[in-house]
Design a protein that fits this description.
The chain is an alpha/beta fold and 322 residues long. It folds into two domains: 99 residues, Winged helix-like DNA-binding domain superfamily/Winged helix DNA-binding domain (Arc Repressor Mutant, subunit A), CATH 1.10.10.10; 187 residues, Vaccinia Virus protein VP39 (Rossmann fold), CATH 3.40.50. Helix content is 44%, strand content 20%. The protein is built from 13 helices and ten strands. The strands form two sheets. A seven-stranded mixed sheet has the order 6-5-4-7-8-10-9, with helices on both faces. Strands 1-3-2 form a three-stranded antiparallel sheet. Helix 3 crosses helix 4 and helix 11 packs across helix 13. The longest helix has 24 residues. The radius of gyration is 20 Å and the shape is globular.
Length: 322
């Protein structure tokens, strides 16, 4: 970037965070994503005024957008891994996350979340006989896969030699891993799902993916260490989520990363019967605690709030260099 471009970028950042309201918006967006009408309600202001503040934050690349139906949702952007603004953004986020929001603001945030949950319950009440479609109604794979791919692209890894995906499902994300790493292991305890993944890999002519039927501890016998391990919407299906972190810590290279997309804690217990979930999501504190207990450090986070009442957290944990 030219000197003039760098100066303009710093000026945009300075303008963006030089406002009390915009700092509070960044704080609210640290753990969820919201539409402009939701943010207008949370901050008790007219939509045009809120749109102006979001435009300023977007011009500074402090917020990103995604479209779900007719609604545009805003979330806090990940800081770049390098460049003149990288350290400033990280320091800004760290400071913003120390802010204590007023109780009334927190109540409005919770009210928005409760509204989403009520919409979800109403939908399922109207579609009670359509259980087969419920899994897809939680979240479209592309929604969180794009965020995981974004985190992966911005993550510095020891090498691009070996990656693993736990529970690859129908194998969509294996395309992304296959294009970035020399070798990829796909591990699943469901032989039926592995057959579907293998078929997709064959159809896409991916020649560097190896399938393993079993649990993650199976890979301990291979004496391999991984640059990156991915778990997309898997932890709520496994009997011991903490055990996953423990095995990941053993299998990652120093400097390697674990990328997780996972449901945040929720109270929609219908998913246990309809989707085979063992757990109703996890709090940030749970995942952070498991990571720290197994020697992993906490990296970047993104939070995707869904209109059906669920929230997905996209997290990076990493093993420090020794």
């Amino acid at each position: 970037m030219s000197d003039s471009g760098s100066v303009e970028q710093l000026a945009a950042l300075g303008k963006a965070y030089g406002d009390v309201l915009r700092l509070k918006i960044l704080r609210v967006l640290s753990t969820d994503s919201f539409g402009v009408l939701e943010l207008s309600s949370i901050f008790d202001m007219r939509q045009p005024a809120m749109s102006h503040h979001l435009k300023v934050l977007a011009q500074a690349e402090l917020v990103s957008t995604r479209k779900e139906g007719n609604t545009i949702f805003y979330r806090r952007s990940l800081p770049a891994t390098e460049g003149i603004s990288s350290n400033l953004m990280r320091s800004l986020y760290a400071a913003v996350d120390e802010l204590v929001l007023p109780d009334e603001l927190n109540r409005r945030v919770e009210f928005i979340r409760s509204q989403r949950a009520e919409q979800s319950m109403a939908f399922f009440a109207r579609n009670i006989n359509q259980f087969r479609q419920h899994q897809e109604l939680i979240a479209d794979h592309d929604l969180y896969a794009r965020c995981v791919a974004d985190v992966l692209e911005k993550t510095e890894l020891p090498a691009q030699s070996l990656a693993m995906e736990l529970g690859p499902g129908e194998g969509e994300f294996l395309d992304t891993l296959s294009s970035r790493f020399d070798r990829v292991y796909a591990v699943d305890n469901s032989s039926e799902m592995l057959v579907i993944s293998e078929q997709r890999v064959k159809e896409n002519n991916l020649h560097n993916v190896q399938f393993v039927h079993g649990e993650i501890d199976t890979l301990n016998e291979l004496n391999e260490q991984f640059d990156c391990i991915v778990a997309n919407m898997v932890l709520h299906h496994v009997a011991s989520p903490f055990g996953i972190f423990s095995w990941v810590s053993r299998l990652l290279k120093p400097g390697g990363s674990l990328l997780v997309s996972e449901l945040s804690s929720h109270d929609q217990d219908w998913v246990k019967e309809s989707c085979g979930d063992l757990w109703l999501g996890f709090s940030v504190e749970e995942l952070d605690g498991w990571a720290q207990e197994t020697g992993l450090e906490i990296g970047e986070s993104q939070f995707l709030g869904l209109r059906n009442g669920f929230q997905i957290q996209v997290r990076r944990f990493y093993k420090t260099m020794t």
